[in-house]
Amino acid sequence: MTRVVVTGMGWITPLGNDLDTVWKRMCNGESAIALIDRFDASSFPTKFAGQVRDFDWTQYVKDADVHRQPAMNSQFALGAAKQAWEQSGLGSFDALDRDRTGIYLGAGEGVLDFSAHSMIDTHSWDVEDGKVDPVAWAKFASNQLDEWGEVEQEPNMPLWHLAREYGLRGPAFNCLTACAASTQAIGEATSVLIGGDADVMLAGGTHTMLHALGITGFNRLTALSTFDGDPKKASKPFSRDRGGFVMGEGSGMLVLETLDHALARGATPLAEIVGFGSSADAYRITDLHPEGRGPSAAMKNALAQAGIDAQTPTNNPPVQYISAHGTSTQENDFIETMAIKLAFGDNAPKVPISSIKSMMGHLIAAAGSVELITCIMSIQTNMLVPTINLDNPDPELDLDYIPNVARKAQVDCCLSNSFGFGGQNNTLVVKRYE
Amino acid sequence: MSQTGNNQVVISGVGVISALGNGIEPLWEAMLEGRTGLKRIERFDPSGFASQVAGVLSEDEFKVRKIVPKSHRKATKVMCRDTELAVGAAAAAVENAGITTAGMSDEPPTIDPNRMGCHIGAGLISAEVNELGAALVTSKKDDGSFDLDHWGREGMQNLSPLWLLKYLPNMLACHVTIVHDCRGPSNTITCCEASSGLSIAESRRVIQRGDADACLSGGAEDRVNPLALFRQLCTGRLVKTDGSGDMTTIVRPFADDASGTIIGEGGGILLIEDTTSCKNRGGSPWCTIDGIGCRQSSTDSPLEVDSRAIESAINKAMSEADCNPCDIDLIVPFGSGIPNIDAAELEGLTSIFGEALQDIPTIITIPYTGNCMAGNGAICVGVAAKAIKEQMVPARIGTEKTNGINAFKCNATKTSINRVLVVTPSEGGQCVAIILGRIDP
C-alpha cells in the first residue's frame, strides 16, 4: 500500500509570511484582523479583514520577468510554494523526475479590476434601454482593461505559474469548490500519488477576494461580520454573539510525496496523510443540511479511510485535534459541532477543536491548506492553537474549542474540516510519521 | 490511506448540449450532415468586438425551468447560463442512462445517493454586465465618475442578495447534486478547456478507489457574453470576423491559413459508472474508459501548449489502456484552429503515430459548436462515445486541406471503431488524453 507523506510546507497569511512567525503568533493568540486599506472600504458594511502585508512575491522566484505580472493569488502561491519546496529539499534534488511531479491546487480566480469595471459598466449604460450598450462597453473595455490582467483572472493561472517556476510536467489540476477547495486539492493529490501517476505533488490553495466586488458579494449574502468594534474581536467562532465570517487571504502549499520516494532521496517526512473524505450536501444552494449530513459523512469517510475508530468510547481518543472549518457564522458553527458529534460519538467532547479563522480570517479557497499546515505544526510542536475571542460561549455549542489560550498536548493525529458554499464537504486526517 | 483497485469504468449515459441542440442526437445529426451551429451573435450586438460569431443554443430550444423538479424551479433564478447548461446536460445524461434519481422521480433511486458523485468542469464565470451595470450605475456621480463611497453605503443594495452565488464555479455541481441528490464526492475543476477531461479523470479515480459507484461528470461553459468574449479576445485566440462569409470554414483546424477559434456555449455531462454497478442495474454502457493521461505543459506562456505534454498524456493513456498507437481507430483532437495550439497538438500526435496519423480518421467538433471551453472536452467525449456506438465517423467541415493529419473536409463514413483517443490541451497548459473502448457486442 502506497503511503503519502508531507515533506514541505509554506504559507503566506495575514499573520505573516513564514512558518515560524505565523505559528508563534497563533500560539500567542494574536489577531491579524484590521481595517482594510487595499481599497476605501469605509462606507462598506464590513470595513475590516485579514490582509497579507509586507509581502513581495518577486523575492520568492528565480526570475520575476518570466511571470510577467501575476495576479495576487498567483503571487501568494509562488510565495508559499517556495517555502514548501525549500523545506522539502527538492530544490537541491537534481534527480527529480518532473514528468512524475504534479500539481493539484484549490485556487480561486484573479482579482477583478473593480475600478475599471465600474467605469466601463456605468459609462456604457444606456439609460433609455435600461441596459449596457455592448458596442460602447466593448470600446470602453478596450481602453480601460489590461489584457494580461484579464488573462490572469483564470483560476488555473496559479497552476501555470508554479509549473513554470519549478518545471513541473506531471498531472495538473485546479479545483474551485469555494471554501473547501484546497482541502479537496490535497486529498485528491494524495489519491493521485496512491494511484501511481506521480511521485511528488505540490498541493494547496491560494485565494484573495479582498477587493471591492468580493466584499460586496459576501456583504450582500450577509455572510460577513459587520462587527462594530475592535476588528481584532470580530471573528469569534463558537461564540454566542458570532456574527459572520471575516475575510482573509493568502496561500498554503505542501509538498506531498510517496513515502518510498521521500525516503529514497533522504527527505524528512513531516507527517503522513492517512485519510480523505469528501461528500456533497445535495440540499440547498444557501443552507447546510440541518442534520449535518454532508460534513459528518466527509469526516466519517476520512476516518474510515484512515482506519480510525473514532466512536468507541475512550479516554484517549485516537484524534487529538480538530481544525474546524469554524467560520464564525451562526449556521456553520452549529452544524459543524453537530457533525463532529455524529462522527465522534461520545468521544466528541474529549477532542480539542479550534478555528484559526478567529485569528487570520477566512482564506476562502486557501483556508483548508493553511489549516492542514496548522495541524502538522501541532503534531511537530505538541501545541494546540486557540480559538480566540471566545469570551461568550454559545451554550448550545458544548465541545472543547480551546478558548483563547494555546495548550500543550501530545498530538499524534489531527483532522481538518473544510465545507464550501454549494455543499462540498472535505476532511483530511493527518498523523505523526512513524 | 486505503485505496482499492482499478475497477473498469464505463460511460453509461451521455448528455450533450450545444449550439446544435439539447442532447447528443441533434448534434450528431448535424455532424452527419456537415451543418454548423456557428453564426453571428444575436444575444447582444457584437459590433464592437473583433470576433462577432459564436455557437449559441437557441433560447426556444432549451429552458432550464422545464427540466428541473418543481422543488428546484425557484432556484433557477440564481442560475447563470453555465449552470443552466450543466443542469440541462445532466438531465439528459440521467435520462439517457435510464436511471431514476431522487430529485427527478418518486421512484426509488437506481443508484444509492451516497455512492453517486459529481465532477463538473467550470470556467471563470463572467458577471452579466447588465445585471452588474444596473447596480453600479446607481453610484455614478454627476461628473460621470464612480462613487465608491455611495456604492458601499447604498449602491450595492441594488445587487440581488444571492448575486455572488450565481457566479461561483462550483454552483454548476451544486445545482446538479441537489437536482439529482448526489451525495458522494463532488468537485469542480477549473482548468479552461481541460476542465471536462480532468473531471472525467477524477470521476474515474473516485470510482476506482471505491468512493462512489457512479458520477455525473463533464463540464459546461458559456462565453457568449460581453465580458467573457472580451476576455477571450485578450488571449488573441479568436478569429477576427464580422459574421459574414461561410460559417463552415470560419474555424479551420490544422490548416495553414487557420486564424483562430470561435467561442461557443455548451457542454456535456456523462454518467461514468463502475462496470459491475452498471451491469447489476441492467444498464447499457456506451463504451469503456480504458485509459486517461493528464500532464502539464512547462511553457513560457500560459497561452502556449507543450507538444511534449500532449505526447506524455497520450502515452500515459495508452499505457493504462494497454494498447499501442496502431490500436487507435479514431482520434478526436482539440482542433481549435488556434495556430500555435494546433501546431503543438499536431507535433504531439505525430510523435506518437508518425506517418500513420494521416490515415487515422478524426472528428473535430469546434467548427460545429465553437470552443465551449470547460464544456468542450465533454462534448468531444460524448461525440466519441456516439461514434463508437454507431461505428460511424461524421462529416468534417472547416478545412479543405491539412498537412500530416486526416482532418480535412469529408462526408460521414461508416467504419470499424474499437478504440478512440480524445485529446484536449488547454489555455494554462493542462493536457488530457482519454481512450475509450468499444464494448464487445
Note the topology.
The complex is a heterodimer of chains A (434) and B (441).
Chain A: E1 4-12, H1 19-27, E2 33-35, E3 48-50, H2 72-88, E4 101-107, H3 114-123, E5 125-126, E6 131-132, H4 134-144, H5 147-151, H6 157-166, E7 172-174, H7 181-195, E8 200-208, H8 212-220, E9 249-258, H9 259-264, E10 271-280, H10 293-305, E11 321-323, H11 330-344, E12 353-354, H12 357-360, H13 367-381, E13 383-384, E14 407-408, E15 413-419, E16 424-431
Chain B: E1 9-18, E2 21-22, H1 24-33, E3 38-40, E4 53-55, H2 81-97, E5 116-121, H3 129-136, H4 148-153, H5 163-167, H6 171-180, E6 186-187, H7 195-208, E7 214-222, H8 226-234, E8 263-274, H9 275-280, E9 287-296, H10 307-321, E10 330-332, H11 339-353, H12 366-369, H13 376-390, E11 392-393, E12 413-414, E13 419-425, E14 430-437
Parallel strand pairs in B: 4-8, 5-6, 5-7, 10-13
Antiparallel strand pairs in B: 1-2, 1-8, 1-9, 3-4, 7-8, 9-14, 11-12, 13-14
Main sheet summary of chain B: 12 strands, mixed
Using only CA atoms, what is the Rg of chain A? 21 Å
> Which geometry of chain B do the CA atoms define?
globular
- According to DSSP, the number of beta strands of chain A is 16
Q: Give the H and E element order of chain A.
A: EHEEHEHEEHHHEHEHEHEHEHEHHEEEE
Q: Please give the CATH class of chain B.
A: Alpha Beta
Q: Which strand order does the major sheet of chain A show? A: 7-4-8-9-1-10-16-15-11-12
Uncertain spans of chain B = none
Order of helices and strands of chain B: EEHEEHEHHHHEHEHEHEHEHHHEEEE
**CATH architecture annotation of the largest domain in chain A:** 3-Layer(aba) Sandwich
Domain module tally of chain B: 1
Give me the Rg of chain B, rounded: 21 Å
pLDDT average of chain B, as an integer? 96
